[in-house]
Amino acid sequence: MKIRDLHEQGYRIREISRKTGMSRNTVKKYLRTDPVRRRRASRPAKLDPFKAYLNTQVAHGVTNGVRLFHEIRQQGYTGGYTLVKNYLQPRRPARTPQAVRRFDTEPGQQAQVDFGFFGYDDVAGRPQKLWLFVMVLSHSRMTYAEFGTTADGTAVIRGLVHAFQYFGGRPRDVLFDHRKPVVQGRDENGDVVWTPRFLDAALALGFHPRACRPYRAQTKGRVERTMGYIRHHFWPGRTFTDLADLNRQLLQWLDTVANVRPHGTIQERPLDRLATEHLEPLPDPARWAPYLLETRTVSRDGFVAYGGSRYGVPWTVAGQPITVEDCGDRLVFRVDGVMVAEHPRAPVPGSVNPLRDQWHSLPQTDPVPTRTGRAQQIPTPDVEVRDLEEYARIGGTISCSR
């Protein structure tokens, strides 16, 4: 037992000397000196080896604690989520909450659609952009999303079809904002004027399109918040090889994270609540499949222009009309219903994508000269030659000066 501990318990110096076997002078010496408190050698915290990585990710805009927790777990972190959450909390940018009024919808009644712009750097470091189609079922919060290079009318229809197939059915109404591929404007009575091709596709798919009021983002707040959720939780720091790889990663994230987490508003997993939607089945594909096709004409050199890029097809169909089926990450080309070529979608506009063996068996013939308008030289006409004296008699003197 320590000398100072015995003294603090009330033992006298003589008693301490007897208990410890030390002389009284030695006991006095120890009691006169200041106590030296030894500290345990501090062990490194479990999170310390991963703080540099967390700081780097936060600097790049990745602040979602759940995502970062899973990432450092894969790197060997053995601690809990709370350590990560507490470390990230003071390092996140502050957010100002805004009050909103929430409107509930009946099961199977409504879905909300939005497009968002996402920037990235290609392999050469050049800035590029992608568009993200997002649909959210308003009752269950079940989400579907896909990236594409355009946000035109075909991209809208394709996203709708893929979302309905992912959900296993369609809602009765789908809410859109005032995008040109969907809404042309409003008439003098304030009624929505839909883009004809989009309206025909909506009727073929069997849902009623609805347009939110202009400049009222909260009208479709569910999909707006989901767009932000993807932008902040999925996109930062993401790497991918091409559009198909990116959409595979996004679909896996939807299946394993977004649609299976307890939603903060409904306190249920969207996947579990999907069964309560009682969605309507899709109509026969023969009704809506034609709206996924566009018609082009093959150039003389065997290329089809689509989405700002050129795609090679067999030379045998040069000059003929061809249909393009836009599948998002790939394009299918058909002539009279027969597929003649398939290409991955070009990552950036302006690229030329030849088809393998595109000119196979093309006859190699010498060019045939074509006759054009030609000039012709004719002989000098015969003219009677007279004696110079005869001219002199008629006109007087002859002069060669002018």
UniProtKB/TrEMBL annotation:
State the Gene3D superfamilies in the record. Answer: Homeodomain-like, Ribonuclease H-like superfamily/Ribonuclease H
Signal sequence extent: none
Q: Name one GO biological process term.
A: DNA integration
Q: Which Pfam families match?
A: HTH_7, Mu-transpos_C_2, rve
Domain Integrase catalytic, by residue range, is 103-278
Keyword Plastid recorded: no
Query: Which keywords are on file for this protein?
Result: DNA recombination, DNA-binding, Transposition
Q: Tell me the InterPro entries matching this sequence.
A: HTH_IS21_transposase_type, Integrase_cat-core, IstA-like_C, Resolvase_HTH_dom, RNaseH-like_sf, RNaseH_sf
GO MF terms here are:
DNA binding; DNA strand exchange activity
On whether DNA-binding is a keyword of this UniProt record, the answer is yes
Q: Which domain of life is it from?
A: Bacteria
Q: Where is the HTH IS21-type domain?
A: 1-58
The family line of this record is: Belongs to the transposase IS21/IS408/IS1162 family.
PANTHER family from the UniProt entry? TRANSPOSASE, TRANSPOSASE RV3428C-RELATED
Task: Give the protein name, as stated in the record.
Answer: Integrase catalytic region
